[in-house]
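Board work, copied verbatim: Glycine dehydrogenase (Decarboxylating) subunit 1
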Amino acid sequence: MSRYTTTTDADLQEMLQTIGVGSLDEIFDRQIPAGVRLRERLDIPEGLPEQDVYAHLRELAANNTSAEDEITFLGAGMYDHYVPAVIDMLMSRSEFLTPYTPYQPEISQGGLQVMFEYQTTISELTGLPVSNASVYEGPSAVAAAGYLAKLANGKTRYVASAGLHPHSLQTLKTYAHGYDIEVVVVPLKDGVTDADAWAAAIDGETSAVFFAQPNVLGAVEDASALSAAAKNSPAVVIAQVDPITLGVLAPPGECGVDVAVGEGQALGNRLDFGGPSFGFFAATTAYLRRMPGRIAGETKDVDGRRGFVLTLQTREQHIRREKATSNICTAQALNALGGVVYLAWLGKQGFQELGELLLQRTHYTREALAALDGVSKLHEQPVVREFAVTLDVPSVAAVIDRCQDAGVHPGADLEALTGDPAHRGGLLVALTEQRSRRDIDKLVEVLGAAVTAERAAGAPEEVAA
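↓ predict structure ↓
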């Protein structure tokens, strides 16, 4: 123990004598049953010098392929956007990087102001008046919104579009099982939520309705119509939105949505093998006191100076357990800082121009791929930054492997992502501003060759007469 602490042998003996035992083993004998104690040494190799550890870690890292090593069109919720240097610079400052939670406003004004400014940007993006200081990530934000609805109306059914990201749908089902709420999934039709089935599924026992904008196939939903279908029920209307698309799509608050949630990774956060990121959560004022997490507010001190405080804290640590609205214990404040810096760096005009750029590049890519032999559009709905095509091949995974061998990742295997056999042959392709016209043309060339090769490999051999 003295290898890692300042406890000397003499200190240890004095402590053992004080509590009346002869050794550390005697303490363990009293507390831990013999049957579960490990008597031999752990089978761990001896330590290595620091430079050897560094070399070993570099060797392991070399087995990975990053978005900087190949041209990637992967998306499905996490996207390879450019992250400006100013974000890393600010996120690495010690006053943001090292603090835990800002309980004391007298020493945490900078952190609280970041939360307040972040909430302001999310409200402006979503068109909803209140935002919290972030949640963990997108899927748990969807589930937390469902719990908000349960607390608000006490109803027993959720109605969810099959266009929700599958990770979000799975998370929602897991949470709902815990408080005995049925989840009814409405299928897609022609790439978007089946409007008739959606309206028929909503009734007086519906606690919340959930849809994605754009949906998992990249299609733009009629958010106003989906919201309107629930207005004669007690249901809370919840939309999972891609924040990057809000530069060109109507904000959810203007479409009748009560709660807007989503994944914030695309806003100034790197891919980093899936995390960490942050989730955002905005709502109408009717649900202010049922929102999860924390909300920072603006105030004045005794001298009349502008200041910031935590206005609402709805977890069980801060209020009575029976009144708590969630178990969210930590806002993803550092990652949310990256988000607000990114939005400030772009500005309103830059954010809109980014959305328009994605529209143009996505349209060009979609049309170019659909012109290939063996590739067709999965649906004809409008798309913004992501779309699905169908490959006429025995194996999408094999096509992806062929493309990767050529230095291009063409996208996500849709059936593998959703687990739905109806999506067999589907490929989900995502665009960011990082993908140039040259990159897109390379994708078209490589994917076309891979589809042709895979179709030839899967064709039955001709039998000679």
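The radius of gyration is 26 Å.
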